[in-house]
């Protein structure tokens, strides 16, 4: 029987300087964080910057928002190396990819199209933010760190660092799964469910 692997994946992306930036801007992956989990145990983590292909120079807005330097991105792995890494995870175990929101998968597919590379993740995808929204009946989708804080916990490391966000996603996943198990667990049997007290009282009164 094949082991099941969960891959908690988070990407950070490039940003235009403003919403009206010309030139057909598309977001590109510039940082990756991966947490691989089998049998509720973290078996591997991976973190790296990734060099963008179409717009290699980061905007000031992007550098400020992500607190990231151009030099760090320039020394990152190539997009093809990122794809190779993801394929290696997939080849080890059948994988379910878990992300907070759908942007990570959407941008990965878009970037694969730009690079003319096949999309590497063949397993099931779970959008944990959508599951969280449905589970708690929220009207709007909740941000990653707001969700972990609602459990009285703190996020791992710094927000908008890919590996830290992937680890935080894993933490929320465990909490939500535990809550689901609790709700689905049958209530303990009470003595009243085993004994018909009406019949018992009638029998006592006739004696």
Automatic annotation (TrEMBL):
The keyword Hydrolase applies. This is 3'-5' exonuclease KapD. The keyword Nuclease applies. Keywords: Exonuclease, Hydrolase, Nuclease. Gene3D superfamilies: Ribonuclease H-like superfamily/Ribonuclease H (3.30.420.10). It comes from Ectobacillus funiculus. NCBIfam families: PRK07748.1. Residues 5-182 form the Exonuclease domain.
């Amino acid at each position: 029987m094949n082991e099941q692997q969960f891959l908690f994946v988070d990407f950070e992306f490039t940003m235009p300087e403003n919403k009206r930036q010309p030139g057909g801007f598309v977001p590109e992956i510039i940082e990756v964080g991966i947490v691989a989990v089998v049998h509720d145990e973290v078996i591997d983590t991976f973190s790296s910057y990734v060099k963008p292909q179409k717009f290699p120079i980061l905007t000031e807005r992007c550098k400020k928002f992500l607190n990231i330097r151009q030099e760090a991105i320039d020394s990152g792995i190539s997009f093809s190396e990122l794809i190779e890494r993801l394929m290696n995870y997939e080849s080890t175990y059948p994988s379910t990819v878990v992300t907070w929101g759908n942007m990570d998968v959407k941008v990965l597919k878009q970037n694969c199209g730009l690079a003319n590379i096949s999309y590497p993740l063949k397993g099931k995808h779970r959008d944990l933010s959508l599951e969280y929204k449905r589970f708690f009946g929220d009207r709007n989708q909740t941000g990653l760190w707001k969700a972990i804080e609602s459990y009285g916990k703190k996020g791992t490391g710094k927000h908008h660092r890919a590996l830290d966000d992937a680890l935080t996603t894993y933490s929320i996943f465990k909490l939500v799964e535990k809550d689901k198990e609790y709700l689905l667990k049958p209530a303990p049997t009470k003595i009243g469910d085993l004994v018909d007290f009406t019949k018992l009282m009638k029998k006592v009164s006739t004696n």
